[in-house]
Amino acid sequence: MRILSKRELKELVLYSPQHVARLEKAGQFPKRVQLGPNRVGWIEDEVLDWLRIRVELRK
């Protein structure tokens, strides 16, 4: 399992951190994992699955 940093996440989904937070709150994006008091990350497989669904929906 690989955890993505905020920087790595932004490179994959091209959304601002604020927009990612709004999507998470609405249940439309994978939830972040609290790694420490000041560090969060996202499970790469969950984010990639989320992206795959978006690609499939465009067809």
From TrEMBL:
Matches recorded under InterPro entries: AlpA (IPR010260)
Protein name, as recorded: Phage transcriptional regulator AlpA
Superkingdom assignment: Bacteria
Organism the protein comes from: Pseudaestuariivita atlantica
